[in-house]
Amino acid sequence: MHADVLFPKDFIIKTKELTKQVRDKVVEKYEAGLGYKKISRALNISLSTIKSIIRKWKEYGTTANLPRGGRPPKLKSRTRRK
């Protein structure tokens, strides 16, 4: 069976965000001198995710989730609950 039949190219599998503790552990290992591949194998996280976490840490100095762009909600959370 061909992979495109199961997962079309437009289909993106969403994953949950990593916790702040895990992202901090990535930076901790990086500061200790481990390379991307070793961190990736040790924590069982993809190499691209490791690179993204470290890039964000170098650029912004934090591993916290940054605000994302996008349209603001039409309804406030308080109005939505009623």
Automatic annotation (TrEMBL):
Source organism, top-level taxon: Eukaryota
Ranges of compositional bias, category Basic residues: 71-82
Stretches assigned to the Sleeping Beauty transposase HTH domain: 13-63
Annotated region described as Disordered, given as residue ranges: 63-82
Name of protein: Sleeping Beauty transposase HTH domain-containing protein
Organism from which the protein derives: Pleuronectes platessa
